[in-house]
Amino acid sequence: MTNVDDSPARLRLDRALDHLSAVLRGMTAHEDEVQCDCHWGGEEELARLKAPDVELDPDLLRRTWTAPDWSDHGAVLRRVLPQLARALVGGRGEPVSGMAEVGASFARGRWQEWPAPQAAAVEEFLHAWWAHALTDPEPAVPVHGLLALCTEASATPGPWLAVWEGLDDEVADRHLAETAGHWEYDLLDDRLPWNGWRLDDEEAVRAELAAWLVRHVPARLRARDGHEELLHRVRLLGLTGPARWEDPHWPDRRS
After folding, report:
1. DSSP 8-state assignment for residue 200
2. What tens digit of pLDDT does each residue of 166-197 get?
3. Which domain holds residue 108?
4. Is 155 helix (H, G, I), strand (E, B) or coil?
5. Which one, out of 97, 117, 128, 182, has a CA that is 20 to 30 A from the CA of 143?
6. 145 part of a folded domain
């Protein structure tokens, strides 16, 4: 039997997807938009972007949102976003370079500068997707990947971390452990745990992520079994210099 997700978070996400589609219905790339026919695709494919509401095949959709050199990336993104959003929520089309690349495409399209109804629809979609992922035991996109996407799209991790912080939920705590475990290697080396695409200050974002984990992981995971070593790694994020790498729990990177 198929399990139907009728949680409030899922219903909110479905409404956000429907509203995004309604607000962006009829959008097209500019009539004079061009693209490289030897590296991107042909005139027939480009013409599909200039026709409203025509579904694109998955490969064309991917080539469209990943292309960095549209003359008006915002118009192109508005054209494909309803289909792209549903594909992403369904776990289809994750780029090889990670979900941060999707967020970079959002940022490149300057969605926050779109007309107010369109910008509000995009913002609600991102927030609804984030809220659902945090409480979904098996989200189609891992929470750490979605946080990278949302951070790149909005240029800050703050609002997304605030939502997570406000959840007293076992599933959200499990995602917290998975995210901390996924990121601790890079953060302990003072690196952003994904390839930064459009962030003005990667170091500030890295520092904010590390500080947030130091503040919130211990209290939320200490009561759960099996996280002793992870808790030590997170503790090390709050240290610098020799205090960090001479600690007995500093990971051995030789293996």
Report:
1. S
2. 999 999 999 999 999 999 999 999 999 999 88
3. 1-140
4. coil
5. 117
6. no
